[in-house]
Structure formats: C-alpha cells, structure tokens
C-alpha cells in the first residue's frame, strides 16, 4: 500500500490497440486504491510539457518518440522510464534476443534450459546453399529476423522440406522445431513478479506426418494453430491442458530473474517449451517486450504490485540522496524529483 497522502502519477504512451487491452477499468480501480494514478500522454503535445510524472510507461518505437524521451530524461532525471529503448531494441532481432539465454547460469535445479538450434539467412543465395543450414533438421520454424511487434513480424511458417524453403523471403531465422507435447509455457515478468501460464501450441510432428504433409504451413504465433490444424480440432479436443505438468516455479522464477538483469528490462514475457525428448529440458523460443499482460489471469494485481514496488524504491532512493547531499538545502531535494504538490497537480490536470 502506498503511503497515505502520497500518490504516484504514471504517464502512459501506448498505441490505441495496446491501450484498449491494457488500460482497463479494473486496472485503474485497483491502482487508484494503491495510490497510483494513470494519466494518458497526449502524443500531439511535447512530452516535456505534460506534467510531473513519477514514471513513464510506454511501448512506442518511432524516432520522434525516442527524441522526446531523451529530452524528457535530461530535464527529469529521476522519473522512472519503463523501459529503456536501447534495451528494448535487443528484442527486435530474433538472434540477439535469444543470445542472452546462453549466458545465464541457473544452478541448483534438476531442470536445464537452452534455445533451439537456429541460424539466420540474409539472402536467397544462402537460402539455396545447403551448407548454410546443414546443422538443422526438418521441420524448421521460419521467422522474420525483425521482431518489432508488427503484423509482418508475426508471420511465421513451419517448413517441412527443401521446396518449402524456396517459398520464404529473407532475412529470416530458421529455428529447429522440437516436439513439445503441443503445449507452450508463457512466462510473464513484471519486475520481481513472475507468472507462468500454459497455452495450446503447434502439435507434435511424427516421422510419418513429415513425409505426408505439404511443403510449408503458415501461422502467426507459436501459440496459435496452423491453418491445417484449425480444420481438425480432434487433436486439441483430446489434449487436456489441465493434464500438462507446469515447470517448477522456482526454476521459472530464476530464469526470469536472470533474463531481467541480463536484458535490463522490467516488462516482458518469454515462451518456453518442454522438450519431449527430455522431460527436464526446456527451450526458450521467444522473448517479447511489454506483451499482452491482460491475457494473464489477475494481471491487474501483478502490474499494480510491480508499479508500487518501483515507486516505493524510487522514494527511498530520493530520500537517501537528499540526506547524502545536504539536508539543509531544500533546493537539493527539488532537483532530485517531483514535489508531492507537483504530482497532485499532474493527476488533477
């Protein structure tokens, strides 16, 4: 619970679709009860002219927005920015986003983790050169190299043979498809708060099926059905998600903590699957910045608790900085953050 008399102002800059899914009345009510007020940032006005925010929550990537954030940070060095654009950009490339996974060291668990075998193909010449991807075995998942959240970046394909490769358009990432029981684990991370849920995924592929299917099947996300499997729902009617064992929470939490520090991000999720060949082996296949948190049951509490943590820590740091500088100089504290009266004015306006 936030301190009595102290309210926090969270300015948010989101595209309309993201705004509608995330800024729900249920979130606003709970946040308000914890001393947190959400204020929509007007993209038609300069950010520096829009009030004394304690925190800026955003998911915009334009050059203009980057410049506005940089100017705002210079004038407001103590405002929390969620998150850094430089850190977010690492997730816009499907190769760099997963490189960090191999750098993590998670100990004291029976489970292990990694990423599927993958390569990047930059042009058609490399695509037709079998030596470039001889380490991969069909089937493979073809994904656009760029993962910026656009509709185009979600267009993927399951490729079953060489003929299917010829239908692709580089630059693309070819990732080993691993049988995983038709279930993917989506792990949502908001600071120290971690929630793992399970979703239906692409069905396993047997050797027999590999010989009889078409060259290529398109889909938009790993947790979506392919066009082919949308027709035949029997597989999913037989598969009960309730029967799928969740990965140990301590294991998932340790991975989330490692990724959070390595990526220097607070709001993200990662997709993880259990390798059917080894029940204690998990593969991380994707990492997304500021994903669809509202799809997660009880997202309002997790988001609100996270923001409360951020704001309380910010206040402690400001008070500490004040005493370390010169408590006798009232201007010293003013320079380090918004006054309470400024925050109230932001909310009221």
UniProtKB/TrEMBL annotation:
PANTHER family attached to this UniProt entry: INOSITOL-TETRAKISPHOSPHATE 1-KINASE (PTHR14217), INOSITOL-TETRAKISPHOSPHATE 1-KINASE 1 (PTHR14217:SF24)
Domain ATP-grasp: 105-316
Gene Ontology terms: cellular component: cytoplasm
Protein name as it appears in the record: Inositol-tetrakisphosphate 1-kinase
Family matches, as InterPro entries: ATP-grasp, Inositol_tetrakis-P_1-kinase, InsP(3)kin_ATP-grasp, ITPK1_N
Binding site for ATP: 94, 143, 175-186, 201
EC number: 2.7.1.134
Similarity annotation: Belongs to the ITPK1 family.
GO terms of biological process kind: inositol trisphosphate metabolic process
Cofactor requirement: Mg(2+)
SUPFAM superfamilies in alphabetical order: Glutathione synthetase ATP-binding domain-like (SSF56059)
Broadest EC class assigned to this enzyme: transferase
UniProt source species: Cucumis melo
Assembly notes: Monomer.
Keyword hit for Ubl conjugation: no
Signal peptide extent: none
Cofactor binding: number and manner: Binds 2 magnesium ions per subunit.
A GO MF term: inositol-1,3,4-trisphosphate 6-kinase activity
Binding of 1D-myo-inositol 1,3,4-trisphosphate, residues: 18, 59, 154, 186, 288, 292
Keywords: ATP-binding, Kinase, Magnesium, Metal-binding, Nucleotide-binding, Transferase
Role: Kinase that can phosphorylate various inositol polyphosphate such as Ins(3,4,5,6)P4 or Ins(1,3,4)P3.
């Amino acid at each position: 619970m936030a301190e009595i008399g102290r309210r926090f102002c969270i300015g948010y800059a989101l595209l309309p679709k993201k705004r509608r899914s995330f800024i729900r009345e249920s979130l606003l009510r709970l946040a308000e009860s914890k001393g947190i007020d959400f204020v929509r940032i007007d993209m038609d006005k300069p950010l520096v002219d829009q009030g004394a925010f304690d925190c800026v929550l955003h998911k915009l990537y334009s050059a203009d927005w980057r410049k506005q954030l940089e100017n705002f940070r210079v004038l407001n060095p103590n405002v929390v920015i969620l998150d850094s654009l430089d850190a977010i950009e690492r997730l816009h490339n499907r190769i760099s986003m997963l490189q960090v996974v191999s750098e993590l060291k998670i100990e004291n668990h029976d489970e292990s983790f990694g990423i599927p075998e993958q390569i990047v193909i930059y042009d058609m010449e490399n695509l037709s050169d079998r030596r470039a991807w001889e380490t991969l075995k069909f089937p493979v998942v073809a994904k656009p190299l760029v993962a910026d959240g656009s509709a185009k970046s979600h267009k993927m394909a399951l490729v079953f043979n060489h003929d299917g490769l010829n239908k692709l358009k580089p630059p693309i990432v070819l990732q080993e498809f691993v049988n995983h029981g038709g279930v993917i684990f989506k792990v949502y991370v908001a600071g120290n708060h971690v929630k793992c849920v399970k979703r239906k995924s692409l069905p396993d592929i047997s050797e027999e099926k590999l010989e009889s299917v078409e060259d290529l099947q398109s889909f938009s996300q790993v947790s979506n059905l392919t066009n082919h499997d949308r027709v035949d729902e029997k597989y999913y009617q037989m598969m009960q998600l309730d029967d799928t064992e969740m990965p140990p929470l301590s294991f998932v939490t340790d991975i989330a903590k490692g990724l959070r520090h390595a990526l220097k991000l607070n709001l993200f999720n990662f997709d993880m699957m259990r390798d059917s060949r080894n029940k204690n082996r998990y593969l991380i296949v994707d990492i997304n910045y500021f994903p669809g948190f509202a799809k997660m049951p009880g997202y309002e509490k997790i988001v609100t608790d996270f923001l409360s943590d951020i704001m309380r820590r910010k206040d402690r740091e400001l008070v500490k900085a004040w005493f370390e500088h010169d408590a006798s100089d009232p201007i010293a504290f003013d320079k380090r953050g918004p006054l309470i009266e400024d925050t109230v004015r932001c909310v009221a306006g």
